[in-house]
Write a structure and sequence with these properties.
Layout: E1 9-12, H1 18-28, E2 32-38, H2 61-66, E3 70-75, H3 80-90, E4 95-98, H4 104-107, H5 112-118, E5 123-128, H6 143-150, H7 170-193, E6 197-202, H8 203-210, H9 212-221, E7 242-245, E8 251-254, H10 259-265, H11 277-282, H12 284-295, H13 300-309, E9 314-316, H14 320-324, H15 327-332, E10 335-340, E11 344-349, H16 373-379, H17 384-393, E12 396-397
Parallel strand pairs: 1-2, 1-4, 2-3, 4-5, 5-6
Antiparallel strand pairs: 3-12, 7-8, 8-9, 10-11
Helix pairs in contact: 1-7, 6-8, 7-8
Pfam families: CoA_transf_3
Organism: Kaistia geumhonensis
Keywords: Transferase
Length: 401
């Protein structure tokens, strides 16, 4: 069955998280993503891992998470012979994606103007930390740095502790979504006009956009966020919005719910003295402490059953392993797997979007370095002898099992 993006070919020079996640999302939808890696070591994410451990003894979970459904070719981008090959590939490509520091690709001869000269319809998407000009141009643009810069870390954690970054690469992943948003918009525009274009995405702008309500509040209400010392879940929110402990030392999150309904459900009428919006904000740490004392009278499952029966917005607080086994996650089939030639069975999070006519799917494992180099070059008309010569020269490498 054709997928929504079948027939779209992407030359993917990106590495680490932002670009690879974007191209994986497009690959899940059927795009032919040709991952162009460095000859030899390949994508830098192949050498990074969590827990100082490797899947199957050798493979990075970080790389395996963001590179399924792609084919890999590993080339020496500084080689003029390779430059000629890539420009030949560009003539039959729709999209180029890269997230090197600004200027790197252009210096190697792979900037937007280089690709546009080879193919005027090309869509060229660049990802960076801070954009392609301005006072931060030379700074490293990394996820945690951006979280601190824009105020997300300062908004997170308890007031009596330091700022806390999110436990995931939020800036990179939002940047990936913005890449996809831009690429799909550009493909639609090209369908109408025949014109390609350059797209610029950066982590700083992406995080600013996704903190839109926080910026709107601060810039228009004359207030600055101050983190509460309790488990209130947002520095701008009143109680009871937050996370609460249960008798079995687990936790539940309670979101926007009528406070009267909550204290009646908890059988805690003494909390009625706080039932006023201004009071719930001004004394939110105090309210949180009283509500937490009440939730600690119940085991988590009993508390959830009671709160849900009263239509109070709540959920268990789980770790990743618990969430992967959650009945709703299981029902949605979100934890999937693929077979990798070196890592074996790799369990991953599947596509998050469902489509009735062109459902996304995992069809390929994350590739080994340059695994598909020979087949890709053959598709572009190179002979076996020419491919052999390129590999012998060291301008192309292929990792074999």
């Amino acid at each position: 069955m054709d997928k929504a993006l079948s027939g779209v070919r992407i030359l993917d020079f990106s590495h680490l998280l932002q670009g690879p996640f974007a191209t994986q999302l497009l690959a899940d939808m059927g795009a032919d993503v040709i991952k162009i890696e460095r000859a030899g070591p390949g994508d830098l994410f192949r050498s990074m891992t969590f827990f100082a451990k490797w899947v199957g003894g050798s493979e990075s979970p970080n790389f395996l998470a963001w590179n399924r459904n792609k084919r890999s070719i590993a080339l020496n981008l500084k080689s003029r012979a390779v430059h000629a090959i890539i420009m030949r590939m560009a003539k039959d490509a729709d999209v180029v994606v890269q997230n090197f520091r600004p200027g790197v690709m252009a210096r190697l001869g792979y900037g937007y103007e280089d690709f546009r000269a080879a193919n005027p319809r090309i869509i060229y998407c660049s990802g960076s930390g801070y954009g392609e000009e301005g006072p931060y141009l030379e700074r490293p643009g990394q996820d945690m740095l951006i979280q601190g810069l824009v105020g997300l870390a300062t908004n997170t954690g308890r007031g009596d502790g330091p700022p806390v970054p999110a436990g995931s690469g939020m800036a990179d992943q939002i940047g990936a979504m913005n890449m996809v948003y831009g690429i799909l918009s550009a493909l639609y525009y090209r369908e109408k006009t025949g014109k390609g274009q350059k797209i610029e995405v950066n982590l700083l702008a992406g995080m600013l956009a996704h903190l839109g309500q926080e910026y709107c509040a601060v810039l228009n209400l004359g207030e600055d966020f101050v983190r509460p010392n309790s488990g209130i879940g947002h520095p701008g929110m009143q109680a009871p919005f937050g996370i609460y402990e249960t008798s079995d030392h687990r936790y539940v999150s309670i979101a926007m719910s009528p406070f009267k309904t909550l204290y009646e459900t908890l059988e805690a009428p003494g909390l009625a003295v706080y039932d006023d919006l201004s009071t719930l904000f001004a004394k939110r740490d105090e309210v949180w402490a009283h509500v937490n004392a009440e939730t600690r009278k119940f085991a988590m499952e009993d508390l959830l059953e009671r709160l849900l029966a009263a239509d109070i917005w709540c959920a268990p607080v789980q770790d990743i392993r618990q969430a992967s086994e959650d009945p709703q996650v299981t029902h949605m089939g979100m934890i999937q797997s693929y077979e990798h030639p070196k890592a074996g069975t790799v369990r991953v999070v599947g596509p998050a979007v469902r489509m009735s006519e062109t459902p996304p799917a995992i069809d390929r494992p994350a590739p080994m370095v340059g695994e598909h180099g020979r087949e890709i070059l053959a598709e572009f008309g190179y002979s076996a002898e020419e491919i052999d010569a390129l590999e012998t020269s060291g301008d192309m490498t292929i990792e074999r099992v």
